TrEMBL record:
This is Thiolase. NCBIfam families: PRK06158.1. Pfam families: Thiolase_C_1. InterPro entries: Thiolase, Thiolase-like, Thiolase_C_2. It comes from Actinocorallia longicatena. Residues 235-378 form the Thiolase C-terminal domain.
Length: 383
């Protein structure tokens, strides 16, 4: 049995004044309407970030009694992981229709924190916390500093990633920075430094927002309201929570998750028409591009140059404006999937990638800790 995404939607984004559960309910209602389904059709639920028992809390709020749930908390990659789990559950007959949903009120709550207390026996507590790093920014800054040193590059290529994200946001009316105007490399480099070499415009936004997708069997999805978007492949890898214990700051779990997803789908990086790659920071994009196989090690600076990842470029990347310029509600992974679905359906208006048939969504969680890759395709992309 093959599995497809039958519905996808965002909640309100930006500064909403809504609670986490209100944002989730809004996204769920929109996604089910998109699919032509009702809450009564749902028997599976995957979610995180709503509390200690996220699946139970969201199910209770929505009035669901699911027979399958997942509330794995792995940071921004969790939602790509949920796609794999949902596919497996539907194929195994555990459930028939799965909602993957998320919501965050970070901006309204004036908070950037998703983490809990650090246990005193962990490597983080012993070797990192005493130096009061900005979590998670200083950790990603260490990876960026290492990248610049090893490959002998300047910050300009990181700035190009932020510039391209803003260009996409200008084509997206829902983007938080839609009215802010274009960015230049010079403006990114001149922005206040937060944790060297990461400046204010190298870091993601803090916004409210949420989303939902609906998965069911491909046969059933073909009879529903919108064209099905098929799950072609998936993979994941968790490498550890402590940066002080990492053997190589420039080698991430995307190496493993990407290879697994492409192998399962029978595809190669060159087959991807549009990519949605987690952009918590500009360095996150550079490392992911290399480890997913879109370019070689140390080649990201040249790969992103010349507008390749901007509108009109040969590699459309983060077409909403991403976490850098569109929306970053604590965890972005689900919104990457929503945009991938919309691109494959041709629903994206001014930012639409022509003839997109295969899309990649890649989530990163924690301190480069968890990685999950999903490949999606239209009917034409099926083998």
């Amino acid at each position: 049995m093959s599995v497809a995404i039958a519905g996808a939607a965002e909640s309100d984004l930006g500064l909403t004044g809504k609670s986490i559960l209100q944002l989730q309910a809004q996204a769920v209602g929109r996604a089910l309407a998109d699919a032509g389904l009702a809450l009564g059709d749902v028997d599976g639920l995957a979610t995180a970030g709503a509390g200690r028992f996220s699946a139970a809390q969201v199910a209770d709020y929505l009035g669901l009694r699911p027979v399958w749930t997942d509330s794995t908390f792995a940071g921004g990659s969790a939602f790509e992981m949920y796609v794999a789990r949902a596919v497996q559950a539907i194929e195994a007959g555990q459930c028939t229709t799965v909602l993957i949903t998320y919501g965050s009120d970070q901006r309204s709550a004036r908070s950037r924190s998703l983490g809990g207390a650090v246990d005193p026996w962990t490597p983080e507590a012993q070797f990192e916390t005493p130096y009061a790093p900005l979590y998670p920014l200083s950790y990603y800054a260490m990876a960026a500093q290492r990248y610049l040193h090893v490959h002998g590059r300047g910050r300009e290529f990181l700035a190009e990633i932020a510039v391209a994200a803003r260009a996409w946001a200008l084509l997206n009316p829902a983007a938080f920075r839609h009215e802010a105007g274009p960015l230049t490399v010079e403006e990114v480099l001149a922005a206040p430094m937060i944790s060297s070499p990461i400046g204010a415009l190298d870091a993601c936004l803090v916004t409210d927002g949420g989303g939902a997708i609906v998965l069911t069997s491909a046969d059933r999805a073909r009879d529903l309201r919108r064209p099905p978007v098929h799950v072609l492949g998936y993979g994941e890898c968790t490498t550890g929570s402590s940066m002080s214990q990492s053997p190589d700051l420039l080698r991430t779990g995307a190496l493993v998750s990407g290879r697994a997803a492409f192998a399962r789908a029978g595809l190669r990086p060159d087959d991807v028409d549009v990519a949605q790659i987690y952009d918590s920071f500009t360095i996150t994009v550079a490392l992911s591009l290399e480890d997913l196989g879109f370019c070689g090690r140390g080649e990201a600076p040249d790969f992103v140059s010349g507008g390749r990842i901007a509108p009109g470029g040969s590699f459309p990347l983060n077409t909403t404006g991403g976490g850098l310029s569109s929306c970053h509600p604590g965890m972005l992974g689900l919104l990457l999937l929503v945009e991938a679905v919309r691109q494959l359906r041709g629903d994206c208006g001014a930012r639409q990638v022509p003839d997109a048939k295969i899309a990649l969504a890649h989530g990163t969680g924690g301190i480069l800790s968890s990685h999950a890759t999903v490949l999606l395709g239209t009917e034409e992309a099926l083998p």
